[in-house]
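Suppose a colleague, Dr. K., hands you the sequence of a protein chain of 520 amino acids and asks what its three-dimensional shape might be. Before reaching for any lab equipment, you can write down a predicted structure in C-alpha coordinate form. Begin with the sequence itself:
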Amino acid sequence: MNVLEKAQLIQELHALIDGLEHRSLSFYQIAYSKARLHEIFNLCDEPIFKKQILKFKARTQPEQAAHDFADHTLYRQTFQGVFQDTNLLEEALSAYSDSGWGILYHPATGWQIWLMTASKGIAITSQWGDLDDIYSWLLEQQSIYHCLKTDVQLKQPLMNIGAVFQPTETETETETETETETETETETETETETETETDLNLSIQTTQEKSEHVHSSQIQQSVSLSDLSKKSQPIDLTTFQQQADSDTAIESHPIVHSLTPNSTEIPITAISEDSSNQNAVSQTFAKQISLNEYLADLNPIMNQDFSPVDLYVMNIVGLPDLSRHLDLLFYSSSLNLWQQQPIYLAEQLSKQGQFIKYLALFGADDSTQAAQLMPRFTAQNQQHILAIKTVSWDNLQANLTNIERLFYCYIQQSDFSWHMENYQAFIPNSLFQTQKFIQFEESPADIQTPLLLLKEKQKIRLIHGKNRLNLSLQESAYPYLLLDRQQGITWQSIQSVINQLNSPIHVTQLYDAIQKNITH
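The predicted structure, expressed as C-alpha coordinates, is then:
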Protein backbone atom coordinates (compact mmCIF):
# COMPACT_ATOMS: atom_id res chain seq x y z
CA MET A 1 0.00 0.00 0.00
CA ASN A 2 1.57 3.28 -1.11
CA VAL A 3 1.42 6.66 0.60
CA LEU A 4 -1.37 7.99 -1.64
CA GLU A 5 -3.62 5.00 -0.91
CA LYS A 6 -3.01 5.40 2.81
CA ALA A 7 -3.88 9.10 2.64
CA GLN A 8 -7.11 8.32 0.77
CA LEU A 9 -8.11 5.72 3.36
CA ILE A 10 -7.41 8.14 6.21
CA GLN A 11 -9.54 10.79 4.51
CA GLU A 12 -12.33 8.24 4.08
CA LEU A 13 -12.03 7.29 7.75
CA HIS A 14 -12.49 10.92 8.78
CA ALA A 15 -15.63 11.17 6.62
CA LEU A 16 -17.11 7.91 7.94
CA ILE A 17 -16.48 8.79 11.58
CA ASP A 18 -17.88 12.30 11.13
CA GLY A 19 -21.03 10.84 9.60
CA LEU A 20 -21.52 8.36 12.44
CA GLU A 21 -20.91 10.95 15.16
CA HIS A 22 -22.64 14.06 13.84
CA ARG A 23 -25.17 13.08 11.15
CA SER A 24 -28.56 11.42 11.31
CA LEU A 25 -28.14 8.34 9.13
CA SER A 26 -30.57 5.64 8.10
CA PHE A 27 -30.07 2.06 9.25
CA TYR A 28 -28.61 1.19 5.86
CA GLN A 29 -26.15 4.09 5.95
CA ILE A 30 -25.07 3.21 9.50
CA ALA A 31 -24.56 -0.44 8.58
CA TYR A 32 -22.65 0.51 5.43
CA SER A 33 -20.38 2.92 7.32
CA LYS A 34 -19.56 0.36 10.00
CA ALA A 35 -18.92 -2.36 7.43
CA ARG A 36 -16.63 -0.04 5.48
CA LEU A 37 -14.72 0.85 8.66
CA HIS A 38 -14.26 -2.85 9.33
CA GLU A 39 -12.97 -3.40 5.78
CA ILE A 40 -10.45 -0.59 6.17
CA PHE A 41 -9.26 -2.01 9.49
CA ASN A 42 -8.66 -5.39 7.85
CA LEU A 43 -6.77 -3.81 4.95
CA CYS A 44 -4.35 -1.97 7.19
CA ASP A 45 -2.02 -4.63 8.52
CA GLU A 46 1.21 -2.65 8.40
CA PRO A 47 2.48 -1.80 11.92
CA ILE A 48 2.80 1.95 11.34
CA PHE A 49 -0.68 2.22 9.85
CA LYS A 50 -2.12 0.02 12.60
CA LYS A 51 -1.19 2.73 15.12
CA GLN A 52 -3.15 5.26 13.08
CA ILE A 53 -6.13 2.88 12.94
CA LEU A 54 -5.91 2.33 16.69
CA LYS A 55 -6.33 6.06 17.27
CA PHE A 56 -9.52 6.07 15.19
CA LYS A 57 -10.83 3.01 17.04
CA ALA A 58 -10.02 4.70 20.34
CA ARG A 59 -12.43 7.49 19.41
CA THR A 60 -15.31 5.39 18.11
CA GLN A 61 -14.84 2.07 19.95
CA PRO A 62 -12.58 2.75 22.96
CA GLU A 63 -13.18 -0.55 24.74
CA GLN A 64 -12.66 -2.59 21.59
CA ALA A 65 -9.47 -0.64 20.85
CA ALA A 66 -8.13 -1.51 24.29
CA HIS A 67 -8.99 -5.18 23.83
CA ASP A 68 -7.32 -5.24 20.41
CA PHE A 69 -4.25 -3.63 21.94
CA ALA A 70 -4.12 -6.18 24.78
CA ASP A 71 -4.50 -9.08 22.33
CA HIS A 72 -1.15 -8.14 20.76
CA THR A 73 0.80 -7.97 24.03
CA LEU A 74 2.92 -10.68 25.65
CA TYR A 75 0.45 -11.01 28.52
CA ARG A 76 -2.90 -11.58 26.81
CA GLN A 77 -3.95 -14.56 28.96
CA THR A 78 -3.49 -12.69 32.25
CA PHE A 79 -5.45 -9.69 30.93
CA GLN A 80 -8.73 -9.39 32.86
CA GLY A 81 -10.57 -6.99 30.56
CA VAL A 82 -11.56 -3.35 30.06
CA PHE A 83 -13.72 -1.70 32.73
CA GLN A 84 -15.37 1.64 33.44
CA ASP A 85 -16.23 0.77 37.05
CA THR A 86 -13.37 0.53 39.55
CA ASN A 87 -15.35 -1.87 41.75
CA LEU A 88 -15.79 -4.34 38.89
CA LEU A 89 -12.11 -4.10 38.03
CA GLU A 90 -11.13 -4.70 41.67
CA GLU A 91 -13.40 -7.76 41.82
CA ALA A 92 -11.86 -9.22 38.67
CA LEU A 93 -8.30 -8.67 39.88
CA SER A 94 -9.00 -9.90 43.41
CA ALA A 95 -9.53 -13.39 41.99
CA TYR A 96 -5.90 -13.31 40.83
CA SER A 97 -4.16 -11.88 43.88
CA ASP A 98 -0.71 -12.94 42.67
CA SER A 99 -1.02 -12.01 39.00
CA GLY A 100 -3.22 -10.25 36.48
CA TRP A 101 -3.82 -6.84 34.95
CA GLY A 102 -6.72 -4.83 33.57
CA ILE A 103 -7.52 -1.50 31.94
CA LEU A 104 -9.78 1.19 33.39
CA TYR A 105 -11.34 3.55 30.83
CA HIS A 106 -12.83 7.00 31.33
CA PRO A 107 -14.07 9.06 28.35
CA ALA A 108 -12.54 12.28 29.68
CA THR A 109 -9.15 11.07 30.93
CA GLY A 110 -8.34 8.04 28.78
CA TRP A 111 -6.93 4.71 29.98
CA GLN A 112 -5.25 3.48 33.15
CA ILE A 113 -3.63 0.08 33.84
CA TRP A 114 -4.20 -1.75 37.13
CA LEU A 115 -1.57 -4.39 37.92
CA MET A 116 -1.61 -7.02 40.69
CA THR A 117 1.81 -7.58 42.31
CA ALA A 118 2.52 -10.74 44.28
CA SER A 119 4.94 -8.93 46.58
CA LYS A 120 2.38 -6.31 47.64
CA GLY A 121 -0.83 -8.30 47.20
CA ILE A 122 -2.58 -5.14 45.99
CA ALA A 123 -3.14 -3.43 42.66
CA ILE A 124 -0.83 -0.63 41.57
CA THR A 125 -2.03 1.83 38.96
CA SER A 126 -0.49 3.83 36.15
CA GLN A 127 -1.13 7.46 35.28
CA TRP A 128 -4.00 8.21 32.91
CA GLY A 129 -2.86 8.30 29.29
CA ASP A 130 -3.00 6.61 25.90
CA LEU A 131 -2.52 2.88 25.42
CA ASP A 132 1.13 3.04 24.36
CA ASP A 133 2.14 5.10 27.40
CA ILE A 134 0.39 2.96 29.98
CA TYR A 135 1.72 -0.25 28.42
CA SER A 136 5.26 1.14 28.68
CA TRP A 137 4.54 1.67 32.37
CA LEU A 138 3.39 -1.97 32.64
CA LEU A 139 6.66 -3.22 31.14
CA GLU A 140 8.63 -1.11 33.62
CA GLN A 141 6.71 -2.55 36.57
CA GLN A 142 7.10 -6.07 35.19
CA SER A 143 10.88 -5.61 35.16
CA ILE A 144 10.70 -4.71 38.86
CA TYR A 145 8.12 -7.14 40.28
CA HIS A 146 8.15 -10.01 37.70
CA CYS A 147 4.49 -10.58 38.58
CA LEU A 148 3.14 -11.58 35.15
CA LYS A 149 3.78 -14.70 33.09
CA THR A 150 3.87 -14.50 29.32
CA ASP A 151 1.43 -16.53 27.23
CA VAL A 152 4.25 -18.93 26.28
CA GLN A 153 5.08 -19.57 29.94
CA LEU A 154 1.44 -20.26 30.78
CA LYS A 155 1.14 -22.86 28.03
CA GLN A 156 4.11 -24.88 29.29
CA PRO A 157 2.29 -26.62 32.21
CA LEU A 158 -0.40 -27.80 29.78
CA MET A 159 2.21 -29.60 27.70
CA ASN A 160 3.52 -31.31 30.84
CA ILE A 161 0.03 -32.62 31.60
CA GLY A 162 -0.16 -34.09 28.12
CA ALA A 163 3.12 -35.91 28.71
CA VAL A 164 1.84 -37.41 31.98
CA PHE A 165 -1.50 -38.71 30.67
CA GLN A 166 -0.34 -40.03 27.30
CA PRO A 167 1.81 -43.16 27.75
CA THR A 168 3.95 -44.09 24.77
CA GLU A 169 4.00 -47.41 22.99
CA THR A 170 7.61 -47.99 24.11
CA GLU A 171 6.62 -47.66 27.78
CA THR A 172 3.80 -50.18 27.32
CA GLU A 173 6.07 -52.68 25.62
CA THR A 174 8.70 -52.29 28.36
CA GLU A 175 6.13 -52.94 31.08
CA THR A 176 4.96 -56.09 29.24
CA GLU A 177 8.50 -57.38 28.90
CA THR A 178 9.20 -56.67 32.58
CA GLU A 179 6.09 -58.57 33.62
CA THR A 180 7.13 -61.56 31.46
CA GLU A 181 10.61 -61.61 32.91
CA THR A 182 9.23 -61.31 36.43
CA GLU A 183 6.90 -64.27 35.88
CA THR A 184 9.82 -66.39 34.65
CA GLU A 185 11.94 -65.49 37.62
CA THR A 186 9.04 -66.23 39.97
CA GLU A 187 9.06 -69.90 39.05
CA THR A 188 12.61 -70.34 40.41
CA GLU A 189 13.39 -67.52 42.86
CA THR A 190 10.94 -66.46 45.57
CA GLU A 191 13.16 -63.69 46.94
CA THR A 192 13.56 -62.15 43.47
CA GLU A 193 9.77 -62.13 43.08
CA THR A 194 9.35 -60.26 46.34
CA GLU A 195 11.95 -57.68 45.44
CA THR A 196 10.50 -57.21 41.94
CA GLU A 197 6.97 -56.71 43.26
CA THR A 198 8.22 -54.22 45.83
CA ASP A 199 10.08 -52.21 43.20
CA LEU A 200 7.10 -52.32 40.85
CA ASN A 201 4.71 -51.11 43.57
CA LEU A 202 7.04 -48.27 44.45
CA SER A 203 7.31 -47.33 40.78
CA ILE A 204 3.55 -47.32 40.32
CA GLN A 205 3.03 -45.30 43.50
CA THR A 206 5.62 -42.73 42.43
CA THR A 207 4.04 -42.39 38.98
CA GLN A 208 0.57 -41.95 40.50
CA GLU A 209 1.85 -39.32 42.93
CA LYS A 210 3.45 -37.33 40.11
CA SER A 211 0.33 -37.67 37.97
CA GLU A 212 -1.97 -36.57 40.79
CA HIS A 213 0.33 -33.67 41.68
CA VAL A 214 0.36 -32.24 38.15
CA HIS A 215 -3.33 -32.97 37.62
CA SER A 216 -4.37 -31.23 40.85
CA SER A 217 -2.35 -28.15 39.96
CA GLN A 218 -4.35 -27.76 36.78
CA ILE A 219 -7.82 -28.84 38.02
CA GLN A 220 -8.97 -27.58 41.40
CA GLN A 221 -11.09 -30.57 42.34
CA SER A 222 -12.22 -33.78 40.59
CA VAL A 223 -15.93 -34.41 40.16
CA SER A 224 -17.18 -37.40 42.14
CA LEU A 225 -19.50 -40.00 40.67
CA SER A 226 -22.29 -38.82 42.94
CA ASP A 227 -21.87 -35.26 41.61
CA LEU A 228 -22.12 -36.53 38.05
CA SER A 229 -25.33 -38.40 38.78
CA LYS A 230 -26.88 -35.23 40.21
CA LYS A 231 -26.60 -33.47 36.85
CA SER A 232 -29.39 -35.58 35.39
CA GLN A 233 -31.85 -34.46 38.07
CA PRO A 234 -34.09 -31.50 37.13
CA ILE A 235 -33.64 -28.46 39.35
CA ASP A 236 -34.98 -24.95 39.60
CA LEU A 237 -32.78 -22.51 37.67
CA THR A 238 -33.09 -19.68 40.19
CA THR A 239 -31.98 -21.97 43.03
CA PHE A 240 -29.19 -23.32 40.90
CA GLN A 241 -27.92 -19.83 40.11
CA GLN A 242 -27.90 -18.93 43.80
CA GLN A 243 -25.91 -22.06 44.61
CA ALA A 244 -23.46 -21.37 41.81
CA ASP A 245 -22.99 -17.74 42.84
CA SER A 246 -22.33 -18.72 46.46
CA ASP A 247 -19.66 -21.29 45.51
CA THR A 248 -16.47 -19.53 46.48
CA ALA A 249 -14.26 -22.18 44.90
CA ILE A 250 -15.29 -21.21 41.40
CA GLU A 251 -12.52 -19.38 39.59
CA SER A 252 -13.26 -15.78 38.53
CA HIS A 253 -12.63 -14.59 35.01
CA PRO A 254 -12.85 -11.22 33.16
CA ILE A 255 -16.24 -9.60 33.39
CA VAL A 256 -16.11 -7.75 30.08
CA HIS A 257 -14.52 -10.42 27.92
CA SER A 258 -13.31 -13.96 28.57
CA LEU A 259 -9.98 -14.71 26.94
CA THR A 260 -9.70 -18.41 26.01
CA PRO A 261 -6.23 -19.95 25.52
CA ASN A 262 -5.37 -21.31 22.11
CA SER A 263 -6.41 -24.93 21.56
CA THR A 264 -3.67 -27.54 21.85
CA GLU A 265 -3.78 -31.29 21.30
CA ILE A 266 -3.90 -32.48 24.92
CA PRO A 267 -5.55 -35.76 26.03
CA ILE A 268 -8.46 -35.06 28.37
CA THR A 269 -9.00 -37.05 31.54
CA ALA A 270 -12.44 -38.61 31.95
CA ILE A 271 -14.00 -40.01 35.14
CA SER A 272 -14.46 -43.79 35.03
CA GLU A 273 -18.06 -44.98 35.30
CA ASP A 274 -16.90 -48.02 37.31
CA SER A 275 -17.31 -47.05 40.97
CA SER A 276 -14.59 -49.51 41.97
CA ASN A 277 -12.04 -47.64 39.88
CA GLN A 278 -11.38 -44.25 41.50
CA ASN A 279 -8.49 -43.31 39.20
CA ALA A 280 -8.86 -41.07 36.15
CA VAL A 281 -8.80 -42.79 32.77
CA SER A 282 -7.02 -41.21 29.82
CA GLN A 283 -9.34 -40.38 26.95
CA THR A 284 -8.82 -38.19 23.93
CA PHE A 285 -11.78 -36.02 22.88
CA ALA A 286 -12.20 -34.32 19.52
CA LYS A 287 -10.20 -31.13 19.28
CA GLN A 288 -12.47 -29.62 16.59
CA ILE A 289 -16.02 -29.99 15.38
CA SER A 290 -17.65 -29.10 12.07
CA LEU A 291 -20.60 -26.70 12.22
CA ASN A 292 -21.64 -26.93 8.58
CA GLU A 293 -19.62 -24.17 6.90
CA TYR A 294 -17.70 -23.40 10.10
CA LEU A 295 -14.96 -25.26 11.95
CA ALA A 296 -14.80 -24.76 15.73
CA ASP A 297 -12.02 -25.45 18.22
CA LEU A 298 -13.12 -27.12 21.45
CA ASN A 299 -11.48 -26.01 24.70
CA PRO A 300 -12.43 -27.86 27.92
CA ILE A 301 -13.72 -25.91 30.89
CA MET A 302 -11.62 -26.84 33.89
CA ASN A 303 -13.37 -26.24 37.20
CA GLN A 304 -14.85 -28.22 40.04
CA ASP A 305 -18.37 -28.29 38.55
CA PHE A 306 -17.43 -30.20 35.42
CA SER A 307 -15.41 -33.27 34.66
CA PRO A 308 -12.98 -32.39 31.84
CA VAL A 309 -15.14 -33.95 29.11
CA ASP A 310 -18.48 -32.42 30.13
CA LEU A 311 -18.54 -28.92 28.69
CA TYR A 312 -16.41 -27.15 26.11
CA VAL A 313 -16.02 -23.56 24.98
CA MET A 314 -16.19 -23.34 21.18
CA ASN A 315 -14.11 -20.85 19.20
CA ILE A 316 -15.09 -20.69 15.54
CA VAL A 317 -12.04 -20.59 13.30
CA GLY A 318 -11.81 -17.34 11.34
CA LEU A 319 -14.24 -15.41 13.59
CA PRO A 320 -12.06 -14.00 16.41
CA ASP A 321 -14.42 -11.05 17.03
CA LEU A 322 -17.42 -13.31 17.66
CA SER A 323 -16.63 -13.59 21.38
CA ARG A 324 -17.34 -9.87 21.82
CA HIS A 325 -21.09 -10.50 21.64
CA LEU A 326 -21.54 -14.30 21.80
CA ASP A 327 -20.12 -17.19 23.84
CA LEU A 328 -20.48 -20.70 22.42
CA LEU A 329 -20.68 -23.85 24.56
CA PHE A 330 -20.79 -27.50 23.54
CA TYR A 331 -21.98 -30.34 25.77
CA SER A 332 -20.00 -33.42 24.81
CA SER A 333 -22.62 -36.11 25.48
CA SER A 334 -24.20 -35.52 22.05
CA LEU A 335 -21.22 -35.08 19.77
CA ASN A 336 -22.95 -36.54 16.71
CA LEU A 337 -26.53 -35.56 17.56
CA TRP A 338 -26.32 -31.80 18.12
CA GLN A 339 -27.96 -30.98 14.76
CA GLN A 340 -31.07 -32.91 15.82
CA GLN A 341 -31.46 -30.87 19.00
CA PRO A 342 -32.40 -27.23 19.51
CA ILE A 343 -29.74 -24.69 20.40
CA TYR A 344 -30.29 -22.82 23.64
CA LEU A 345 -29.65 -19.07 23.41
CA ALA A 346 -29.48 -16.88 26.51
CA GLU A 347 -28.73 -13.33 27.67
CA GLN A 348 -25.81 -13.04 30.12
CA LEU A 349 -25.90 -10.27 32.73
CA SER A 350 -23.27 -9.06 35.17
CA LYS A 351 -23.81 -9.21 38.91
CA GLN A 352 -24.98 -5.58 38.72
CA GLY A 353 -27.53 -6.41 35.98
CA GLN A 354 -25.70 -5.03 32.94
CA PHE A 355 -25.82 -6.91 29.65
CA ILE A 356 -22.58 -8.76 28.85
CA LYS A 357 -23.25 -10.86 25.75
CA TYR A 358 -25.33 -13.73 24.41
CA LEU A 359 -24.61 -17.37 25.25
CA ALA A 360 -25.40 -20.33 22.96
CA LEU A 361 -25.36 -23.94 24.16
CA PHE A 362 -25.12 -26.89 21.74
CA GLY A 363 -25.80 -30.53 22.64
CA ALA A 364 -28.12 -30.22 25.65
CA ASP A 365 -30.74 -32.97 25.79
CA ASP A 366 -33.55 -30.71 26.99
CA SER A 367 -34.33 -27.36 28.59
CA THR A 368 -33.78 -28.75 32.10
CA GLN A 369 -30.23 -29.76 31.25
CA ALA A 370 -29.61 -26.41 29.57
CA ALA A 371 -30.85 -24.69 32.74
CA GLN A 372 -28.27 -26.67 34.72
CA LEU A 373 -25.28 -26.17 32.43
CA MET A 374 -25.56 -22.50 31.53
CA PRO A 375 -25.52 -21.05 35.08
CA ARG A 376 -22.51 -23.22 35.95
CA PHE A 377 -20.60 -21.56 33.12
CA THR A 378 -21.72 -17.99 33.85
CA ALA A 379 -21.05 -18.34 37.58
CA GLN A 380 -17.32 -18.48 36.79
CA ASN A 381 -17.51 -14.81 35.81
CA GLN A 382 -19.98 -13.86 38.57
CA GLN A 383 -22.68 -13.47 35.94
CA HIS A 384 -26.19 -14.89 35.61
CA ILE A 385 -28.77 -15.84 33.00
CA LEU A 386 -31.73 -13.55 32.32
CA ALA A 387 -33.65 -15.81 29.94
CA ILE A 388 -33.18 -18.94 27.82
CA LYS A 389 -34.68 -19.45 24.37
CA THR A 390 -34.49 -22.20 21.77
CA VAL A 391 -33.35 -21.43 18.23
CA SER A 392 -32.53 -23.53 15.17
CA TRP A 393 -28.98 -23.78 13.88
CA ASP A 394 -30.06 -22.39 10.49
CA ASN A 395 -31.33 -19.18 12.08
CA LEU A 396 -28.37 -18.82 14.45
CA GLN A 397 -25.83 -19.54 11.72
CA ALA A 398 -27.29 -16.84 9.48
CA ASN A 399 -27.11 -14.16 12.18
CA LEU A 400 -24.35 -14.99 14.66
CA THR A 401 -21.59 -12.74 13.25
CA ASN A 402 -23.44 -9.46 13.91
CA ILE A 403 -24.94 -8.44 17.25
CA GLU A 404 -27.78 -6.49 15.61
CA ARG A 405 -28.86 -9.47 13.47
CA LEU A 406 -28.38 -11.78 16.44
CA PHE A 407 -30.68 -9.54 18.49
CA TYR A 408 -33.45 -9.80 15.88
CA CYS A 409 -32.89 -13.57 15.72
CA TYR A 410 -33.23 -13.77 19.50
CA ILE A 411 -36.39 -11.63 19.55
CA GLN A 412 -38.19 -12.86 16.43
CA GLN A 413 -36.88 -16.35 15.55
CA SER A 414 -36.69 -18.11 18.91
CA ASP A 415 -39.05 -19.49 21.55
CA PHE A 416 -38.90 -19.04 25.32
CA SER A 417 -37.67 -21.96 27.38
CA TRP A 418 -37.35 -19.99 30.63
CA HIS A 419 -37.09 -16.40 31.81
CA MET A 420 -36.81 -14.51 35.08
CA GLU A 421 -39.81 -12.80 36.62
CA ASN A 422 -40.47 -9.30 35.22
CA TYR A 423 -38.27 -10.14 32.24
CA GLN A 424 -37.22 -7.33 29.90
CA ALA A 425 -35.07 -7.99 26.84
CA PHE A 426 -31.95 -5.96 25.98
CA ILE A 427 -31.46 -4.01 22.75
CA PRO A 428 -28.01 -3.20 21.28
CA ASN A 429 -27.08 0.47 21.65
CA SER A 430 -26.40 0.72 17.90
CA LEU A 431 -30.07 0.15 17.03
CA PHE A 432 -31.62 3.26 18.56
CA GLN A 433 -30.97 6.99 18.66
CA THR A 434 -30.01 8.30 22.08
CA GLN A 435 -31.27 11.87 21.61
CA LYS A 436 -34.68 12.54 23.15
CA PHE A 437 -37.28 13.95 20.75
CA ILE A 438 -39.53 15.34 23.53
CA GLN A 439 -37.93 16.98 26.57
CA PHE A 440 -39.45 16.40 30.03
CA GLU A 441 -38.28 15.59 33.55
CA GLU A 442 -37.58 11.91 34.17
CA SER A 443 -37.55 10.15 37.52
CA PRO A 444 -34.18 8.84 38.79
CA ALA A 445 -33.00 5.61 37.17
CA ASP A 446 -30.99 2.56 38.16
CA ILE A 447 -29.41 -0.28 36.18
CA GLN A 448 -32.71 -2.20 35.98
CA THR A 449 -34.67 0.79 34.62
CA PRO A 450 -35.66 0.14 30.98
CA LEU A 451 -35.61 2.59 28.11
CA LEU A 452 -38.87 3.52 26.41
CA LEU A 453 -38.44 3.46 22.63
CA LEU A 454 -40.64 4.22 19.63
CA LYS A 455 -40.18 2.25 16.43
CA GLU A 456 -40.70 4.20 13.24
CA LYS A 457 -40.18 3.11 9.64
CA GLN A 458 -36.39 3.41 9.54
CA LYS A 459 -35.42 4.48 13.06
CA ILE A 460 -35.94 3.65 16.70
CA ARG A 461 -36.15 6.81 18.80
CA LEU A 462 -35.80 7.40 22.53
CA ILE A 463 -38.89 8.60 24.42
CA HIS A 464 -37.77 8.03 28.01
CA GLY A 465 -34.37 6.94 29.33
CA LYS A 466 -31.89 9.82 29.39
CA ASN A 467 -31.16 9.24 33.07
CA ARG A 468 -30.69 5.52 32.45
CA LEU A 469 -28.22 6.16 29.62
CA ASN A 470 -26.29 8.63 31.75
CA LEU A 471 -25.54 5.85 34.24
CA SER A 472 -23.26 4.23 31.66
CA LEU A 473 -22.97 5.34 28.06
CA GLN A 474 -20.69 2.46 27.07
CA GLU A 475 -22.99 -0.52 27.70
CA SER A 476 -23.43 -2.68 24.63
CA ALA A 477 -27.18 -3.16 25.24
CA TYR A 478 -29.94 -1.79 27.47
CA PRO A 479 -33.27 -3.11 28.83
CA TYR A 480 -36.16 -1.61 26.91
CA LEU A 481 -39.90 -1.25 26.35
CA LEU A 482 -40.96 -0.75 22.73
CA LEU A 483 -43.86 1.12 21.16
CA ASP A 484 -44.62 1.09 17.43
CA ARG A 485 -45.98 3.84 15.20
CA GLN A 486 -48.13 1.19 13.51
CA GLN A 487 -50.14 0.99 16.74
CA GLY A 488 -51.51 4.42 15.90
CA ILE A 489 -49.06 6.28 18.13
CA THR A 490 -47.94 9.77 17.09
CA TRP A 491 -45.54 12.23 18.68
CA GLN A 492 -48.49 14.52 19.30
CA SER A 493 -50.31 11.81 21.27
CA ILE A 494 -47.15 11.09 23.28
CA GLN A 495 -46.79 14.80 24.07
CA SER A 496 -50.43 14.93 25.13
CA VAL A 497 -49.96 12.01 27.54
CA ILE A 498 -46.80 13.57 29.00
CA ASN A 499 -48.66 16.84 29.65
CA GLN A 500 -51.24 14.96 31.73
CA LEU A 501 -48.66 13.32 34.04
CA ASN A 502 -46.99 14.84 37.06
CA SER A 503 -43.22 15.36 36.97
CA PRO A 504 -40.90 13.58 37.38
CA ILE A 505 -42.28 10.82 35.15
CA HIS A 506 -41.31 7.16 35.65
CA VAL A 507 -40.81 5.04 32.55
CA THR A 508 -43.44 2.40 33.39
CA GLN A 509 -45.93 5.14 34.29
CA LEU A 510 -45.47 6.73 30.86
CA TYR A 511 -45.57 3.38 29.05
CA ASP A 512 -48.83 2.34 30.74
CA ALA A 513 -50.41 5.75 30.07
CA ILE A 514 -49.56 5.61 26.35
CA GLN A 515 -50.87 2.03 26.08
CA LYS A 516 -54.08 3.08 27.81
CA ASN A 517 -54.42 6.04 25.45
CA ILE A 518 -54.16 3.69 22.44
CA THR A 519 -57.14 1.60 23.56
CA HIS A 520 -59.43 4.66 23.86
